[in-house]
Amino acid sequence: MRIKLFGALAMACLVAAQPADSQPAPAASELTYADLADLALAAPVVAHLRVRDADRLDPELAPNVPLGHRRFLVEAEVVALIRGSGGIEGRVSYLVDLPNDSRGRPAQLRRRAEVLVLAARVPNRPAELRLVAADAQLPFTAANAERLRTILREASAADAPARITGIGRAFHVPGNLPGESETQFFLQTADDRPISLSVLRRPDQEPRWAVALSEMVDEAAAPPAPDTLLWYRLACALPARLPPEVLREADPNQARAIQADYRLVIDGLGPCRRTRAAR
Question: Which of 31, 50, 76, 229 has the most Cβ atoms closer than 10 angstroms to its Cβ?
Fold first, then answer.
């Protein structure tokens, strides 16, 4: 069996590798939008692969493997490239750690199993990949492949929302009528592009909030739809509570109003659910 090697250490591992039996890979739990976005946005290469060979490495030759896992050296052919500027080789190799089954037996990765991998290229080794996270090999499903494509299309758009790094300032302005007010939150981003939140309260109306991706707040702006990149940027980056430093310039009444409006936004976004274990 011909395997592309991962340097001298991989050569030693390959000598003692055990061929994996032709059995299904362990089923993955249902991934949320945030799970997939975390992986996709970190991966220069996202590919649909078909496994050709999988060698299970002896534990003594696979250091730093998490307890209850075994390491595999996988060779696979590319079925479809979902992301990867410049393309990749038609056949690639990578290492992956898979959990043992419920009886403590090593996982099995069958030949011709189809997987999704989220990875980076190994410098100067065009046919080798390195997974961006320990769990960045996923069983292929058409639904997950399409979800990844959607996330990456949004991320590559000219108006894609920037990564949020914090909350800069907040301003609260009472209106002329009782119960009328507007609060604005100006967010900090990784590339200094503007993102702001506005909360409008009017007498006898439900409060409304919206997000703007420019210096101007559009009156027709609305909250982001769930499971979109803009929703992910907000729901998965904003703190549950407003940092105290944001309220430094507000008097007590303004501070209470700003905190209430921030809570309205957080409740409107809903939780950023993740099912992946911490890596």
Answer: 76
In-domain check, residue 2 = no
Please report whether residue 250 resides in a domain: yes
Pairing of strands 91-99, 45-56: unpaired
CATH code of the domain covering residue 82 = 2.40.50.120
- Are 130 and 112 members of one domain? yes
Residues 105, 32, single domain; the answer is yes
Distance of CA 8 to the CA centre of its chain: 32
Distance CA 60, CA 83 (A): 35
* pTM, full prediction: 0.86
Greater confidence (1 vs 121) lies with 121
Tokens of 117: 């991998």
Bridge partners (DSSP) of residue 50 are 77, 114
Strand partners, 196: 186, 212
Domain that residue 98 falls in: 7-156
Tokens for 215, please give them. Answer: 């210096």
pLDDT score, position 220: 65
Length of the chain: 279
Query: Are 30 and 102 members of one domain?
Result: yes
Residues 168 and 140 reside in one and the same domain: no
Does the pLDDT of residue 15 top 50, yes or no?
no
Distance (Å, whole) CA 50 – CA 91: 9
Q: Are residues 71 and 116 in the same domain?
A: yes
Residues 6 or more apart whose Cβ sits within 8 Å of residue 17: 55, 56, 57, 58, 73
Mean of pLDDT values over 234-251: 94
7 or 124, greater pLDDT: 124
Give domain status of residue 60, yes or no.
Answer: yes
| 14 and 54 housed in the same domain | yes
DSSP SS3 for 261: helix
pLDDT in tens, 203-216: 999 999 999 998 76
